[in-house]
């Protein structure tokens, strides 16, 4: 019986040992019995005591808040060390407790609270109430953070991106929280905005194409073309970062949450008055704002620009780049040619403000006027000569010389030669001026044969005797009478019966102004005279001989 009671007592004793003796590697409860030398002495039961540094009870950057008598949870690493004390850790207990809590938050996709306490390569360390997590640099804020100092030690929410308990890895994000709250804020701000509404905003950022304006948690884009009615080359001409501006909401895209803003919409549209202010063919002074290959843009007033097409820039400078006629910022006089209110376009003319130089030339140089100019160009069909008003006139091959072929006559001229010519025709519409060099001394042939026509009898001087006939001269114009035309009688068709200096009456058989030659014949004159005598003094059947008739005719002449 005694043996039985001893066994029962031993079993009860062992049971009590097992109950009171905590298992190594587990979290146990203990009581702080003393605080000394920066450590807390903790009774973990079964007469086991251990020491824990006070700093293990504090959050990073905070002082520990513990006192004797407080009950705390610690991690039992070993039941006894060399000094006979339990090896315990508050930090490891917190870590185990934290991991349980964090795994639940990760599963629920819930936010967790923590504080950034250190900087490591590529990011920061975060204390999540006992467990240390890694915060990558890209996950700190929505925009890159230059100075993370103000964020250190602050208790704030984080989102767990990844966690691996076995490896002890946790990756968190602060940016995800900010984006979520920003999205909520954006949705709220956008929900309160309507298209056409006027709001105040702060210029946050300026780019080449526009400016981003903060409307109180949400940014809107103010495009450069919506800043003013006039042409704006760069937004910094009118805006500064940090400036408060009044803008109109032009468009809200509900899907992308993009907001388009405008400033010019709050000002009067100058185009409403364009037609009244700029009637067709009226002349105005404007400023050249932009030059392109096809023309120049001229600002008539802020917000109203017109295009001077390259074809309307100069009467004389064709196929020239507009930049060689006008320069940016130059003040110019322009004429309004066309207005298209729907397309907001004004067509302007620069040359129309100056007189057409061909019109001016026609007025000041009527046909027959003598001009002088430099040979600008020589082509296969004639010479181009520079004239007053920066225009050219053309002398055609056929107008170079009376006596030479054009192809031969043009060889006498070189580029740069100064020549005289006569204006023969001005075509204002085709912008053409025809000149003649051969007409300079007048048309000698036309003057000489002015009253002469076919059938006329004229007196000529014999200038040369040749085998084939005789050369004669009339008013300075040379002609040749062939042997067969020297007489009606074959016996008298001899050139040698004439002498140089003789005066001879001849009949004109042809006037060729092209070859500038007179066709002359003594034979034709004799035949014509005979015919006339027969008609006047008798007929061939009257019995009178030809000698009688001619005799009577000669008497009549006397």
Written description of the protein model:
This protein has 558 residues and is of the alpha+beta class. The protein has 6 domains: 70 residues, OB fold (Dihydrolipoamide Acetyltransferase, E2P), CATH 2.40.50.140; 71 residues, OB fold (Dihydrolipoamide Acetyltransferase, E2P); 74 residues, Nucleic acid-binding proteins (OB fold (Dihydrolipoamide Acetyltransferase, E2P)); 80 residues, OB fold (Dihydrolipoamide Acetyltransferase, E2P) (Beta Barrel); 80 residues, OB fold (Dihydrolipoamide Acetyltransferase, E2P) (Beta Barrel); 89 residues, Nucleic acid-binding proteins (OB fold (Dihydrolipoamide Acetyltransferase, E2P), Beta Barrel), CATH 2.40.50. The chain contains 9 helices and 30 strands. A 5-stranded antiparallel sheet has the order 3-2-1-4-5. The protein has a 5-stranded antiparallel sheet with strand order 8-7-6-9-10. The chain starts with a helix and ends with a helix. GO terms for molecular function: mRNA binding; structural constituent of ribosome. It holds the Pfam family S1. InterPro entries: NA-bd_OB-fold (IPR012340), Ribos_protein_bS1-like (IPR050437), Ribosomal_bS1 (IPR000110), Ribosomal_protein_S1-like (IPR035104), S1_domain (IPR003029). Binds mRNA; thus facilitating recognition of the initiation point. It is needed to translate mRNA with a short Shine-Dalgarno (SD) purine-rich sequence.
Show the helix and strand layout.
Elements: H1 2-20, E1 26-36, E2 39-43, E3 49-53, E4 71-78, E5 87-89, H2 90-108, E6 111-120, E7 123-127, E8 132-136, E9 155-164, E10 169-173, H3 175-191, E11 198-206, E12 210-214, E13 219-223, E14 244-253, E15 258-262, H4 274-277, E16 283-292, E17 295-301, E18 304-309, E19 331-340, E20 345-349, H5 357-364, E21 370-379, E22 382-387, E23 391-396, H6 406-409, E24 418-427, E25 432-436, H7 444-448, E26 457-466, E27 469-474, E28 477-482, E29 503-512, E30 517-521, H8 522-537, H9 546-557
Parallel strand pairs: 13-15, 18-20, 23-25
Antiparallel strand pairs: 1-2, 1-4, 2-3, 4-5, 6-7, 6-9, 7-8, 9-10, 11-12, 11-14, 12-13, 14-15, 16-17, 16-19, 17-18, 19-20, 21-22, 21-24, 22-23, 24-25, 26-27, 26-29, 27-28, 29-30
Helix pairs in contact: 8-9
């Amino acid at each position: 019986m005694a043996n039985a009671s001893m066994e029962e007592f031993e079993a009860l004793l062992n049971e009590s040992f097992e109950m009171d003796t905590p298992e190594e590697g587990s979290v146990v409860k203990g009581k702080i019995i003393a605080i000394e030398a920066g450590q807390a002495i903790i009774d973990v039961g079964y007469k086991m005591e251990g020491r824990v540094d006070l700093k293990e009870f504090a959050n990073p950057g905070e002082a520990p808040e513990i006192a004797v008598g407080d009950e705390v949870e610690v991690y039992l690493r070993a039941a006894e060390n060399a000094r006979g004390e339990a090896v315990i850790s508050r930090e490891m207990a917190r870590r185990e407790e934290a991991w349980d809590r964090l795994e639940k938050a990760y599963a629920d996709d819930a936010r967790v609270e923590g504080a950034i306490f250190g900087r490591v390569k590529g990011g920061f360390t975060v204390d999540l109430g006992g467990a240390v997590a890694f915060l990558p640099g890209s996950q700190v804020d929505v925009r890159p953070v230059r100075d993370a100092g103000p964020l250190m030690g602050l208790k704030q929410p984080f989102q767990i991106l990844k966690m691996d308990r076995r490896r002890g890895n946790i990756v968190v994000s602060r940016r995800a929280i900010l984006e979520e709250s920003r999205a909520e804020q954006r949705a709220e701000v956008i929900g309160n905005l309507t298209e056409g509404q006027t709001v105040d905003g702060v210029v946050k950022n300026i780019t080449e194409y526009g400016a981003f304006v903060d409307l109180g948690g949400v940014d809107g884009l103010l495009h450069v073309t919506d800043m003013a009615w006039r042409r704006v080359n760069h937004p910094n001409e009118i805006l500064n970062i940090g400036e408060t501006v009044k803008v109109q909401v032009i468009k809200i895209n509900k899907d992308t949450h993009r907001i388009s803003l405008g400033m010019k919409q709050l000002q009067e549209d100058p185009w409403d008055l364009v037609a009244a202010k700029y009637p067709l063919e009226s002349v105005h002074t404007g400023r050249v704002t932009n030059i392109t290959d096809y023309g120049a843009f001229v600002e008539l007033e802020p917000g109203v620009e017109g295009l001077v097409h390259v074809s309307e820039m100069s009467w004389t400078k064709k196929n020239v780049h507009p930049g060689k006629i006008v320069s940016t910022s130059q003040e110019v006089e322009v004429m309004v040619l066309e207005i298209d209110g729907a397309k907001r376009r004004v067509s302007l003319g620069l040359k129309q403000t100056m007189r057409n130089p061909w019109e001016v030339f026609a007025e000041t140089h009527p046909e027959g006027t003598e001009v002088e100019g430099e040979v600008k160009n020589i082509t296969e069909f004639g010479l181009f000569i520079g004239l007053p008003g920066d225009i050219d006139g053309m002398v055609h091959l056929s107008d170079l010389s009376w006596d030479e072929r054009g192809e031969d006559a043009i060889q006498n001229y070189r580029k740069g030669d100064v020549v005289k010519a006569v204006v023969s025709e001005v075509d204002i519409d085709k912008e053409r001026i025809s000149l003649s060099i051969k007409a300079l001394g007048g048309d000698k042939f036309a003057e000489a044969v002015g009253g002469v026509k076919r059938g006329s009898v004229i007196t000529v001087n014999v200038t040369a005797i040749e085998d084939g006939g005789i050369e004669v001269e009339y008013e300075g114009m040379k002609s040749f009478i062939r042997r067969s035309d020297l007489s009606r009688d074959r016996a008298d068709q001899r050139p040698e019966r004439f002498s140089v200096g003789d005066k001879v009456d001849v009949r004109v058989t042809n006037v060729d102004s092209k070859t500038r030659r007179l066709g002359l014949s003594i034979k034709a004159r004799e035949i014509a005279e005979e015919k006339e005598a027969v008609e006047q003094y008798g007929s061939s059947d009257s019995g009178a001989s030809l000698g009688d008739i001619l005799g009577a005719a000669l008497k009549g002449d006397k």
